[in-house]
Design brief:
Layout lengths: L12 H10 L5 E3 L6 H5 L7 H6 L3 H9 L14 H11 L7 H14 L10 H13 L5 H7 L2 E5 L9 H7 L6 E3 L5 H4 L4 H15 L6 H17 L4 E6 L9 H12 L6 H22 L2 E6 L1 E2 L4 H7 L7 E2 L5 H12 L6 E6 L5 H9 L10 E3 L9 H14 L19 H19 L7 H20 L5
Parallel strand pairs: 1-2, 2-3, 4-5, 5-8, 8-9
Antiparallel strand pairs: 6-7
Helix pairs in contact: 1-19, 11-12, 12-14, 13-14, 17-18, 18-19
């Protein structure tokens, strides 16, 4: 039997039927990722397997470092693509029980029809076989999206982005649409005053608003929110260590804004007040437009100062916080709910110990207006594992409605990551199938099929309301 055979992760007949007859054929809405919009719009092609597989993939970089590979073979410019690929091949046998081992071989199967197990002995054959397929005119971003039946790609975008690539891409007739996500972290976070002021000047320029006050700043930011909506955006995304909440009046916001524009560092209380103030504004706009607010909590970013200085962010040096988040998150949500201005929300945490508290807090703010209005997000980043996904599903199922879950996303920078949806779907079918065979869920074909279709595709389609999807 080959590795990752057709019934991989499917331990019984019910799980197998649910996957092969129902889940496998569902389209994909990849509602949150970090794919470059220019590559999607431009129908990018790739020169070799190392470029498409290893470039920018800090999951793999972390494993290679742990395996003792030198940085020159990971991010170094002096090494050839083949040398970097060979380093990855040496690392691969050491990744057993890490999801990278599963993902790597699913990717080899689904993109390159290759059943070989990657190791130093098979590296040359895999390199040649994959590169032959990559060299074909038919191997490009649009064909990848077609092959995986990707209906929507949700990118992650700065509010001052022109969205030119989204506009160009969606003007065509491709089935795959690309939608921006409004990521306003640079408007909220004032740790680097110089960077914040430079960004604010760019906001003024693109919005054509003179920013003489906090009210002007908010008006300019809302004009970008409106522009994103006109171009299909239906989500915001916020990358936070924790949810800020210190109440901030309009007058206090004006004083903080004046201080910031004078290049004076705010106090820690003022910095949190400013974040709270901006997030509340965005939450209200989201509620008015029917958008979803994604809250990603718990990453300790750039922990290794030496390597951050050398390589910059998003290079594999981010860890996990273990600090409480619920008290301030509850206060923030309540500040919007009390005026009926709480939008749909998805809560992600990169530490599994916070999943159950988040799942219980969500129930306090379900209001009957939208099925599954408050969502416990799919296993994210360091929780994007076999065990992490199961823990997320168990937490949601125990105190919420798994049947209303909007499902999987890749959160990836790689065009080879779409099989993660298959991985997730196999896990879901395994859990449901096992419960059915244990007598914990009725063996009702209609009930089960609709459940799986919902979690794989229909729930996301109905929840996000992307135009034209």
């Amino acid at each position: 039997m080959s590795y990752l055979h057709e019934n991989f992760l499917l331990p019984n007949k019910t799980a197998q039927r649910l996957f092969h007859e129902v889940a496998a054929s569902q389209p994909i809405i990849d509602y949150h990722c970090h794919l470059p919009p220019e590559a999607v719009a431009g129908n990018a092609r790739f020169t070799n397997l190392a470029e498409i597989w290893l470039g920018g993939d800090h999951y793999k970089w972390r494993a290679m470092r742990a395996a003792g590979e030198p940085e020159s073979l990971i991010t170094g410019k002096e090494s050839s693509p083949k040398e970097k690929f060979d380093a990855w091949a040496r690392t691969m046998p050491q990744t057993v029980r890490n999801p990278l081992h599963h993902w790597t071989h699913l990717e080899l199967k689904r993109y390159f029809d290759c059943d070989l197990v990657l190791n130093p002995n098979t590296a040359d054959a895999i390199w040649e076989e994959a590169n032959a397929k990559i060299a074909a005119d038919s191997f490009n971003v649009h064909s990848i999206c077609q092959d995986f039946d990707i209906r929507a790609i949700g990118t992650t975008d700065d509010p001052i982005d022109t969205l030119e690539h989204h506009i160009a891409h969606n003007s065509g007739k491709l089935k795959t649409k690309m939608f921006p996500t409004f990521r306003p972290d640079k408007a909220m976070i004032t740790t680097n005053i110089e960077a914040w002021n430079l960004w604010t000047d760019r906001l003024a320029a693109i919005s054509e608003v003179t920013l003489g006050s906090a009210a002007d700043f908010v008006r300019a930011l809302k004009s970008r929110h409106d522009f994103f909506h006109q171009n299909g955006c239906r989500l915001t995304d916020h990358g936070l260590e924790y949810c800020p909440y210190i109440a901030c009046s309009d007058a206090q916001a004006e004083a903080i804004y004046t201080k910031l524009r004078a290049s004076q560092s705010p106090s820690s209380i003022e910095a949190e007040q400013w974040m709270t103030y901006i997030m509340q504004q965005i939450g209200r706009w989201n509620a008015a437009k029917g958008w979803t607010m994604q809250l990603h909590f718990g990453a300790i970013r750039n922990a290794n100062t030496k390597m951050y200085t050398k390589l910059g962010p998003d290079t594999g040096y981010d860890g996990v916080f273990d600090e409480p988040i619920i008290r301030k998150l509850a206060a923030f949500l309540d500040s919007l709910a009390i005026t009926d201005e709480l939008p749909k929300c998805i809560f992600y945490h990169v530490n599994t110990q916070h999943l159950f508290p988040l799942a219980t807090l969500m129930g306090c703010y379900q209001d009957g207006s939208v099925p599954g209005k408050m969502q416990l997000g799919s296993g994210w980043w360091h929780v994007d594992t076999l065990d992490g996904m199961r823990q997320q599903i168990e937490a949601l199922s125990s105190v919420g409605l798994f049947s209303r879950f909007v499902g999987m996303l890749t959160d990836s920078r790689s065009f080879l990551s779409f099989p993660r949806h298959e991985y997730f779907r196999r896990i879901v079918c395994s859990i449901i199938g096992t419960d059915v065979e244990a007598g914990l869920i009725p063996d009702d074909k209609c009930l089960l099929d609709e459940l799986i279709k919902g979690i794989c595709y229909n729930n996301a389609k109905n929840y996000f309301n992307f135009p034209g999807i």
